[in-house]
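Action item from last meeting closed. Structure (503 res):
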């Protein structure tokens, strides 16, 4: 197993760029390059300078502005013209690297290159020799076996060729899974074979495409099989289904105890900018950075997420969001699969008081609504709270309450369709109201009440919270709001009576 620190080699500006619907110009590449510098990558493949004058210009510009500690690399086919262009473009860099490649899979040599394996080997060795001569002592040479992942049948030929390529001057050997076709394990086994066969001072790199969605797995496991240079792209940009996503590799290694030399807290911000600049939207479910990557919708997950939300390790998340600079919290969405915890969290976060008991009471109402319309918005949940916590409908209806000249209280209310008009003397409106209800023949075991000022929207309101004892002994909480404290109290009593009726 490798003990060396991973070397993050970014390919967003080359493989990523060549896959864009509108490849970046120099200015745009410079913006992405600066993000990479901030992120702290060790190497950047700045482009394919033979592709266009624009890309040549961009490669030169990035080589000029590159910090001294970053390897600046340019891609060249195994032809002299491409190699010369790369050498010219990256010449100003402090650590220049020419990256040349040719395919060595039986299929590609036969059907695409139309060459024998011996011819291909000769081209590879000559290209590396030429690149080495061109860059001189200042720089280094990376050689890639294009379609390495398809070299199962001829791996011995590939290893022999790589030994010659190394003798010719390449010090970095890159093993791409140019098209991901099978299991990561099969690819990693090939990487391990090459690692064992080459001198230990040679850096083994892997470059995985994501055609089957396992590029991150293949890259991470290749690191443990000896690959040190990990070729990754921001947001997983790259040909077809993209390249290995840098953030996923970085976090998987970090979580596996590897010292990752990146500023991980820059990840989220970088991802948003890259999406904006590339026009490639971040998939809702994208690992770590997707808008939904912190969302919990099932009651079980919501419960675990809330119980561990302030802990570094969470019950249902791989990292604390702050590790990648994500400021948004875990999100609880209320659907028909959700429960009381989500109600409690959504209402509390919206600034309204609620108890777990109340959340449990309105959860079925919210579920029924969510069954009809899908995930409820915060507004929907607040409406349910208003209609079922602050204004509980039921058989008891308050019609009027007035203070008489003799200081008695007159309460007018209805129970189902029967009206009650009761006069009582009481020690304040709450006491009088309770007495009036009891005098009318209803059992109402009142325990206590609290009042608080509440800023609901633009106007300040009084909130009254009442505690009753139900017939089964449980304590029932009811509440209500009004601009008048007295009215809030009386409404809360009636809400409590209606809640008790439903038990
Ligand atoms: O996918 C690939 O094989 C490449 C090489 C040029 C490294 O991008
Ligand atoms: Zn590639």
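Sequence:
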């Amino acid at each position: 197993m490798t003990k060396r620190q991973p070397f993050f080699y970014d390919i967003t500006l080359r493989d990523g760029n060549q896959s864009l619907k509108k490849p970046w110009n120099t200015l745009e590449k410079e913006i992405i390059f600066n993000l990479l510098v901030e992120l702290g990558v060790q190497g950047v493949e700045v482009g394919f300078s033979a592709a266009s004058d624009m890309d040549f210009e961009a490669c030169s510009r990035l080589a000029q502005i590159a910090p001294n500690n970053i390897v600046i690399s340019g891609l060249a086919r195994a032809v002299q013209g491409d190699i010369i262009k790369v050498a010219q473009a990256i010449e100003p860099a402090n650590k220049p690297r020419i990256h040349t490649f040719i395919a060595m899979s039986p299929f590609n040599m036969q059907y695409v290159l139309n060459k024998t394996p011996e011819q291909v080997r000769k081209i590879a060795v000559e290209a590396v020799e030429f690149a080495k001569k061109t860059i001189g002592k200042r720089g280094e040479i990376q050689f890639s076996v294009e379609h390495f992942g398809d070299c199962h049948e001829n791996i011995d030929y590939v290893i022999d060729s790589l030994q010659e390529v190394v003798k010719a001057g390449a010090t970095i050997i890159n093993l791409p899974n140019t098209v991901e076709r099978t299991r990561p394990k099969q690819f990693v086994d090939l990487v391990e074979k090459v690692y064992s066969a080459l001198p230990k001072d040679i850096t083994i790199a892997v470059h995985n495409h994501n055609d089957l969605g396992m590029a991150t797995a293949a890259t991470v496991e290749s690191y443990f099989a000896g690959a040190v240079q990990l070729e990754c792209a921001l947001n997983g940009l790259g040909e077809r289904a993209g390249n290995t996503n840098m953030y996923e590799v970085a976090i998987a290694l970090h979580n596996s105890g590897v010292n990752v030399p990146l500023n991980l807290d820059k990840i989220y911000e970088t991802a948003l900018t890259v999406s904006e600049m590339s026009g490639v939207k971040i998939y809702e479910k994208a690992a770590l950075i997707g808008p939904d990557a912190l969302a919990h919708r099932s009651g079980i997950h919501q419960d675990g997420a809330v119980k561990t939300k302030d802990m570094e390790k969470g019950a249902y998340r791989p990292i604390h969001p702050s590790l990648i600079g994500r400021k948004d919290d875990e999100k609880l969405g209320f659907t028909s699969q959700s429960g009381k915890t989500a109600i409690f969290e959504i209402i509390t976060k919206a600034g309204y008081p609620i108890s777990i008991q109340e959340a449990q009471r309105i959860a079925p109402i919210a579920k029924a609504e969510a069954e009809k319309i899908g995930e409820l918005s915060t507004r929907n949940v607040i409406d349910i709270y208003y209609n079922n916590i602050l204004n509980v409908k039921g058989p008891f209806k308050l019609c009027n309450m007035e203070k008489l000249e003799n200081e008695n209280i007159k309460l007018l209310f209805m129970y189902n369709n029967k009206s009650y008009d009761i006069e009582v003397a009481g020690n304040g409106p709450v006491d009088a109201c309770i007495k009036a209800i009891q005098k009318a023949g209803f059992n109402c075991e009142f325990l206590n009440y609290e009042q608080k000022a509440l800023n609901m929207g633009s106007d300040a309101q009084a909130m009254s919270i009442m505690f009753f004892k139900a017939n089964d002994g449980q304590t029932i909480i009811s509440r209500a709001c009004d601009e008048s404290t007295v009215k809030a109290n009386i409404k809360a009593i009636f809400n409590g009576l209606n809640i008790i009726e439903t038990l």
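Note appended to the action item: The mean pLDDT is 96.
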